[in-house]
Amino acid sequence: MQINGNFLKIQKNYLFSDIAKKVAAYKAANPDADVIRLGIGDVTRPLAPAVIDAMHKAVDEMAREETFMGYPPEWGYDFLKRAINENDFAARGVKLADDEIFVSDGAKSDCGNIGDIFSADNTVAVCDPIYPVYVDTNIMGGRSGDLIDGRWSRFIYMPCTADNGFVPEKPKAHADLIYLCYPNNPTGASITREQLEGWVAFALENGSVILYDAAYEAYITTPGVPHSIYEIEGAKKCAIEFRSFSKTAGFTGTRCAYTIIPHDLKASDGTELNALWARRQATKFNGVSYITQRGAEATFSEEGKRQVRETIDFYHGNADIIYNGLKGLGYEVYGGVDSPYVWLKTPEGLSSWEFFDLLLNEVQVVGTPGAGFGPAGEGYFRLTAFGSRENTRRAVERIAKL
Ligand code: PLP
After folding, report:
1. CA dist., res. 157 & res. 134, Å (int)
2. Measured from the CB, is residue 106 less than 6 Å from ligand 1?
3. How far is the CA of 214 from the centre of ligand 1 (A)?
4. Cβ contact 51:298 at 8 Å
5. What's the pLDDT tens digit per position in 26-64?
6. At residue 193, does pLDDT exceed 70?
7. Distance from the CA of 108 to the center of ligand 1, in angstroms?
8. Rounded to an integer, what distance in angstroms lies between the CA atom of residue 174 and that of residue 197?
9. Percent of the chain with pLDDT over 70
10. What does the alpha-carbon distance between residue 340 and residue 218 come to, in Å, rounded to a whole number?
11. Cβ–ligand 1 contact at 244 (below 6 Å)
12. Alpha-helical regions (H) of 299-387
C-alpha cells in the first residue's frame, strides 16, 4: 500500500493549532490570566430566532412517519435552492437556474473538494496572503510542486499589499485556476466592480477559471461593491462562486453553504463543469440535513433577514471599535468596512509572530499573525470582529496600554 505522498508535503502545524498551543502554554503558566481571543474567525452570536423556529418545526416533522425525511437530494432541496436564487441572485439582477446551485455542508468543503474535477496538471494562482484551505488542498491534489524558500514551485503567487489595496496584479504566467476571495480573509479588503470586471475579462481572454470565494458577501456595506461575481457580464463563462451561511447567519456549527457552477462554464474540451460537480457530489456527498436546510431557508424570511442583519450589524459595530480604536492609536489599519476582519501593520518592524507574543504576554489579547496566511502576510496581523462587545472594547483598551 502506498499513500498519497502529497499529504506529507503539507506543513504539519495548522496556523490555528499553533496559536492554540501558545495560548494554552500561556494559560498553564498564568492560570488566572484573563485572555481575550480575537483570533480565530468563528462567530459567537446564537442563531436567529427565525432559524431556531424553523429547525424546531423540522425536528417535529422528522418525528412523524407522514413527514419524516430520509436522505436529502445530494444537491440540496428545491425549497432552499429557490430561496437562495430569489434572494441572493435574482434580487441583484443575476439570473441563475436552480440546478446551477449546489447546497453543501460548507464553503471549506467546497473550496477544497472542487479540485476533484480539475486535472492535477492545472496551474494554480493564489493570492498572498490567503485563506490556507486553497493552498493546502491544491498541495493534496498534486498541483503544488516543491516548497522552495517558503513558496510552492508550481503555484503562481499574487501578492496583496497595501500598495495594491490588497487586490493583486494579474499573473504574468498562464494560470488555469485563479483563487479570489472578496471581501477578503484575512485582509478585510473588498474589490470594486471595475477591478472585478478586469479579472473576468482576464479569465475569459486566458481560458482561466476564477474560483471566487464570497463567504463574507453579507458584510459588504460600500455601495457599488459587487456581492456576486455574476453581477459582472461574462462571469458565468469563467467563474465558480462559493457562498456560506456560516458568517452570514451564524451557521459555523450548524453547517450549510452553497456553490454556483453555471452551465455556461466549460473546460477547454467543451465539458460542462456543472455536470462534473453534480456527478462528484452525487458520488461522494449525501447532502445536508433537512433540519439544517429548513434553518437556512428561514434566513430568507422577512423576520429571518431582519434578525440576520441585526447580528451582522453587531459585528460591524465591533469592527468599527477595533478599526477606529487602533487608527486612533496610530496603527496602520485596513479592512473592517466590508468585512469582519481588521488587518493591521505590526508596529516598529515587529514580525507577525513577535507582535502575537507581545499582545499575548503583555496585554493578554490573542489575534492571528499575518505570516500564517502566506509570506506576504509577514508584518501584518488580523483581529476579528466576532467577539462580544465588551471583550472587543477591552481588547482595544488593553492594546492602548502597550
Ligand atoms: N472561505 C473563507 C474565506 C473563510 O474564511 C471561511 C471560514 O473561515 C470559509 C470559507 C469556511 O466557510 P464554511 O464554514 O462554510 O466552511
Report:
1. 12
2. yes
3. 9
4. yes
5. 999 999 999 999 987 899 999 999 999 999 999 999 999
6. yes
7. 5
8. 19
9. 100
10. 10
11. yes
12. 302-328, 352-358
Residue type, 314: F
| The C-alpha cell that represents 391 in the structure block | 471583550
Order of strands across the sheet that contains 341-345:
333-335, 341-345, 380-384, 368-369
Task: Compute the distance between CA of residue 60 and CA of residue 222 in angstroms, rounded to an integer.
Answer: 41
Q: What is the pLDDT of residues 352-398, one digit of tens each?
A: 999 999 999 999 999 999 999 999 999 999 999 999 999 999 999 99
DSSP string, 137-154: HHHHTT----EETTEETT
Which DSSP state fits 346? Answer: P
Distances from the Cα of 40 to the Cα of 14, 30, 239, 341, 401, angstroms: 12, 21, 28, 10, 23
Residue type at 189 in one-letter notation: A
Cell numbers for 277:
460537480
Over residues 98-138, the pLDDT tens digits come to: 999 999 999 999 999 999 999 999 999 999 999 999 999 99
Q: With a 6 A CB cut-off, is 127 part of the ligand 1 pocket?
A: no
| List of residues 6+ apart from 348 with CB closer than 8 A | none
106, 348, 145: which is closest to 248 by C-alpha?
Answer: 106
CA distance 46 to 76: 24
* Alpha carbon of 366 to ligand 1 centroid (Å): 20
The stretches of 14-173 forming alpha helices (DSSP H) are 15-29, 49-62, 78-84, 107-113, 132-140
Residues 6 or more apart whose CB falls under 8 angstroms from that of 5 comprise: none
Question: How far is Cα 247 from Cα 398, in angstroms, rounded to an integer?
Answer: 27
Instruction: Please provide residue 218's backbone torsions phi and psi, each rounded to the nearest 5 degrees.
Output: -65, -15
Placement of cell 407522514 in the chain: 66
Please tell me the predicted confidence (pLDDT) of residue 256.
98
